[in-house]
Design brief:
mainly beta; globular; 7% helix; 221 residues; 2 helices; Lipoxygenase-1; 14 strands
């Protein structure tokens, strides 16, 4: 059975066999917005373009990142950030690519965007890896039917075994919030990797704002 996480929960990355979980996927899933059609007949679907991103952090600050290459480099530079890319140094993190719609007509069982993680390839200078979502549209998270994150063994197109999942339902507290800090991987005092569910919505309208917020407020939490 997969672990159903709640906000603030921390878990060890160990399988039932006791082996460390080193190679896995972190997937984000969300739904398109549905509304009734003309005179109540049928349904209309509004596509939702969320971006799953990650940053790798160490004692010296920001070490590496993966976020959409479609973000304007001049805007990223205003936050002291490098252009976007889909593969981190050494291949420790790999992004599946941009999904600009979300699930139309219900959850299809697959994640819209997936980051493949190889913890054995993470630099020893990295102590934390944060995962977060940014909305490229005008909607806020109170309007989006659901947003989920899960950790699983497999590939972006084939889920073999779900290790843990964290479901974030649309709630009134998400009104006006356009970004969501999902969770983080972090090294424990013994050097082993753990995961913490964060689930904090923010009003950030650009990925640079979210990264600055994480660096200022979440590194020591």
């Amino acid at each position: 059975m997969a672990i159903n996480l709640v906000k603030g929960q921390k878990i060890d990355l160990r399988k039932k066999t006791g082996e460390s979980l080193l190679n896995f996927c972190v997937g984000a899933n969300w739904g398109a917005i549905e509304s009734s059609g003309f005179l109540g007949f049928g349904k209309n679907h509004k596509e939702v373009d969320l971006d799953l991103s990650a940053i790798m952090v160490g004692a010296s600050g920001l070490v590496d990142h993966i976020y959409s290459p479609l973000y304007r480099p001049d805007l990223l530079a205003q936050f002291g950030l490098a252009p976007g890319k889909l593969v981190a140094s050494g291949g420790a993190l790999r992004h599946s690519g941009d999904d600009r719609a979300g699930d139309v007509g219900g959850d299809d069982g697959l994640d819209n965007e997936v980051i493949t993680v190889d913890l054995s390839a993470v630099s020893s200078s990295v102590t934390q890896i944060f995962f977060f979502l940014n909305n490229c549209g005008q909607e806020d998270f109170s309007q989006i039917p659901y947003a989920k994150i899960r950790m699983f063994e497999g590939t972006p197109t084939h889920v073999r075994d779900v290790f843990a999942s964290y479901n974030v339902s649309a709630e009134s507290k998400y009104s006006g919030r356009r970004a969501l800090i999902l969770g983080k991987l972090y090294r424990s005092g013994a050097g082993e990797w753990k995961f913490a569910a964060i689930g904090d919505p923010t009003p950030d309208v650009f990925v640079g704002q979210t990264i600055v917020r994480i660096m200022q407020n979440y590194i020591n939490s």
